[in-house]
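Readers outside the structure-tokenisation community will struggle with the description of the input data as it stands. What matters is that the chain and its backbone geometry are given together, residue for residue. For illustration, here is how one protein appears when written out as sequence plus structure tokens:

…
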Amino acid sequence: MNKEEMKRSCMEEIDKSRIDIIDLGQKIYKKPELGYKEFETSKIIQKTFDSLGFRTEEKIAYTGVKAFEPKKNGPVVAVIGELDSNQDGNVHACGHNIQLANLYGCAVGLKRAGVLDALAGNVRFIAIPAEECVDYDYRNRLIQERKIEFYGGKQEYLKRGGFDDVDIILQCHMMDMKSYN
């Protein structure tokens, strides 16, 4: 496949799966979890990636999930979505549930279109914990118990070596939430 055929094929697969992608985002939206408490959200994401045939690694930064295919030579691209919610009544106010739906959509397109096999490198799909700076008492306790070293999940994953062989990281962030429903 040439580049344009790969793009078209990915978009077709994403479009075929649009209901599943939206459903995943809505399911996560309805059960928000604070940072480093994303146990159920991590299970949902892991099960979702397992169903696509990816290998998964759980608890990558206390919570969180990495989905990947066996490594081949070439550059490594990490695509990230954030797991946690805000503390104002526990809600996905800044769209992390949509980030996770996008993460899944990206994986669906690349995997089902066969593009991952054609790439000259690797793609990792990372559901990262604890982006929001909330619930410091809980995080302080985790630090005291030596379960984490950092308040933020990206920093924790970096410390644990998760990004050591990653060449580039891609992530989206939601800006206009009015159109999502």
